[in-house]
């Protein structure tokens, strides 16, 4: 039996936030610059509220300014576009995050396209997706960036490794594949229509699961020694009727097979927020013309 390492994303993210706080203090002392992150929440989905609360708290703790905009669920698309345009013009705002999902009557693609690419700290604008695809500096989506940082720290050299990304979303799967390709991995993107998904996963030295299906990936889908990054955050009710959070990987089955694995919670989630703060700092430096 393999002794599986736990990849402690919570501790790694805390160290990252401490580094970011030190850099933010330096920016303020030497340049009088305080990075500002605007978070826009439309409606009152309780899960979204918790994420927003964590983001706001960690932004402030890192010595950056957090500007919150909570709008009612009935907000029109035109009103939201107007708010984003005002934030684009506001020089105290360096990063803009519009929490997804948006209410159904609002076209999220239109909202994302309205965010100025240099303030798009989620990295969701087509300009940032395109920059990543062609290898230009831009803003990289936070969750895949967090996964990459964990892989660089916990996986053996990435160049030449076989990486399988399960999930093809614009938010995680596709940018994750681009980042792994940039590290010279041999990248496969698998998804719900992939023929023989278990066999595809068994080829992976590095497996990133980002499908949003509780415990889809079983222990016997893993190559022994594989590095497993679990992006899933799924709320489930267990046999005793208790609510808990599980990932896209059957964690207990993976223990003893994987070489290393991220737990849920405490793995990728905290890295997403740390990378959001990193992107906000980067965006502020670039907008102020300060090298970093
Ligand atoms: N424009 C936009 N950008 C986002 O980045 C975005 C979004 N919309 N909508 C919602 C999702 C979800 N998301 C999470 C971030 C951190 C944790 C996180 O820190 N999770 C902890 C705690 C989990 C818990 O206990 O609830 C963990 O996994 O350990 C979770 C989820 C960002 N999202
Ligand atoms: Mg997690």
Summarize the helices and strands and which ones pair or pack.
Blueprint: E1 5-6, H1 9-31, E2 36-42, H2 46-61, E3 65-71, H3 77-89, E4 95-98, H4 108-114, H5 126-134, H6 142-154, E5 162-166, H7 173-182, E6 186-190, H8 197-202, E7 206-209, E8 227-230, E9 234-237, E10 243-246, H9 251-254, E11 260-261, H10 268-288
Parallel strand pairs: 1-11, 2-3, 2-4, 5-6, 5-7, 7-8, 8-11
Antiparallel strand pairs: 9-10
Bound molecules: 5,10-Methenyltetrahydrofolate (GUE) and magnesium ion.
Overview of the molecule:
Its EC number is 1.5.1.5, 3.5.4.9. Catalyzes the oxidation of 5,10-methylenetetrahydrofolate to 5,10-methenyltetrahydrofolate and then the hydrolysis of 5,10-methenyltetrahydrofolate to 10-formyltetrahydrofolate. It comes from Benzoatithermus flavus. This protein has two domains: 86 residues, 3-Layer(aba) Sandwich (Rossmann fold); 129 residues, NAD(P)-binding Rossmann-like Domain (Rossmann fold, 3-Layer(aba) Sandwich). 42% of the residues lie in helices and 16% in strands. The chain has ten helices and eleven strands. Helix 2 links the parallel strand 2 and strand 3. The chain is globular, with a radius of gyration of 19 Å. The termini are far apart. The model has no long low-confidence stretch (mean pLDDT 97). It binds 5,10-Methenyltetrahydrofolate and magnesium ion (MG). The site of magnesium ion has 7 residues, from helix 10. 5,10-Methenyltetrahydrofolate (GUE) binds next to helix 2, strand 4 and helix 10.
């Amino acid at each position: 039996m393999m002794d599986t390492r736990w990849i402690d994303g919570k501790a790694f993210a805390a160290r990252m936030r401490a580094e970011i706080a030190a850099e933010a203090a330096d920016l303020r002392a030497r340049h009088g610059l305080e990075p500002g992150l605007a978070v826009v929440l439309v409606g009152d989905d309780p899960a979204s509220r918790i994420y927003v609360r964590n983001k706001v708290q960690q932004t402030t703790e890192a010595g950056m300014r957090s500007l919150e905009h909570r709008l009612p669920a009935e907000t029109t698309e035109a009103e939201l576009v107007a708010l984003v345009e005002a934030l684009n013009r506001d020089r105290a705002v360096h990063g803009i995050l519009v929490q997804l999902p948006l209410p159904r009557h609002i076209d999220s693609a239109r909202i994302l396209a309205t965010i100025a690419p240099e303030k798009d700290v989620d990295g969701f604008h087509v300009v940032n997706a395109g920059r990543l695809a062609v290898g230009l500096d831009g803003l990289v989506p936070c969750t895949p960036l967090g996964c990459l940082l964990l892989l660089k720290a916990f996986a053996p050299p990435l160049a030449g490794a076989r990486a399988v990304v399960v999930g093809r979303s614009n938010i995680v799967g596709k940018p994750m594949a681009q980042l792994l390709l940039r590290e010279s991995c041999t990248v496969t993107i698998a998804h719900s229509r992939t023929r023989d998904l278990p066999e595809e996963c068994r080829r992976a030295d590095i497996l990133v699961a980002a499908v949003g299906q509780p415990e889809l990936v079983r222990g016997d889908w893993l190559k022994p020694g594989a590095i497993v990054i679990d992006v899933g955050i799924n709320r489930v009710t267990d046999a005793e009727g208790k609510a808990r959070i599980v990932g896209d990987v059957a964690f207990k089955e993976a223990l003893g097979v994987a070489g290393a694995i991220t737990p849920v919670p405490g793995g990728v989630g905290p890295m997403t927020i740390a990378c959001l703060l990193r992107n906000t700092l980067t965006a502020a430096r670039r907008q102020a013309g300060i090298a970093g």
